[in-house]
Amino acid sequence: MSDRIHAHVYVSGKVQGVFYRANTRDTARSEAVAGWVKNLDDGRVEAVFEGDKDAVETLVEWCHTGSSQADVAAVEVTYKEPIGLSGFEIRR
Prior knowledge:
Elements: E1 4-14, H1 20-30, E2 34-39, E3 45-52, H2 53-63, E4 71-80, E5 88-90
Parallel strand pairs: 2-5
Antiparallel strand pairs: 1-3, 1-4, 2-3
């Protein structure tokens, strides 16, 4: 079984107002990945994913496309030590 990892992600482009957060939450839950997602004032979306390495990498790859209405310009990822997150939520 793969190790647990933690990814901190920033997504830019047309990613607000296109169900990006809701689709991220649903995808994370289906992959059993913990964390959160939120809109930033500068138009980007910020997310944290934590869980099985393969599942987290699936979410990071998913971020490059996102919801069907999104137009992703860039995805920045930083990996950190896991902090023991559980569940997945949309933060306001």
